[in-house]
Design brief:
Layout lengths: L7 H8 L3 H7 L3 H26 L5 H16 L3 H10 L5 H21 L9 H21 L3 H25 L14
Helix pairs in contact: 1-2, 3-4, 3-5, 3-6, 4-8, 6-7, 7-8
Amino acid sequence: MGKERLTTTRVAQRAGVSVGTLYQYFPNKKALLQAALKRHLDEVTRAVELVCHEQRGKPLEQMATALITAFLAAKMQDAKTSVALYAVSSDVDGAKIARQMGTRSTQAIVEMLASTCEPLRTDPQLAASMLHGTMIGVSRRLLESSAPEKQFETLRQELIFLACAYLKACSARPSVPSAGAFRQRP
């Protein structure tokens, strides 16, 4: 069903409630879609926060592998829902919702990277922003593809390779200045 065919009446029928009951919680279709998008992105963010907490103090390669695996698994847990929410996100102020959740995810990644048992010569804020942006880009690529499930494992492996190579380079090169200019703005 396309987004044009999504109506509050259809949603109420599928949920087994009256339209009046649905309107008590969601005054219109936009509010309903915003809530669904927030819930989805919050689940992805919580998965990132959890894995980042679990990986504190570990080697960079282990951190990157666990982070990417958890992020993509959460993002693609229900690929059809992810694709549908991605398709409507621009209609429901999705960029604002994504920025809020992105700030939380990036902060969790910063804290994880700052705790690594290996030297990290790049500012953790900058490295976290680069990793988060790359993960978002790959998940977008998956969601825009005609068969995200078929490409999932290949892109997951390549993203892990990319992230590990990046973090290895970040630990081997001379210090990189603070990422103040790259911090996400609320």
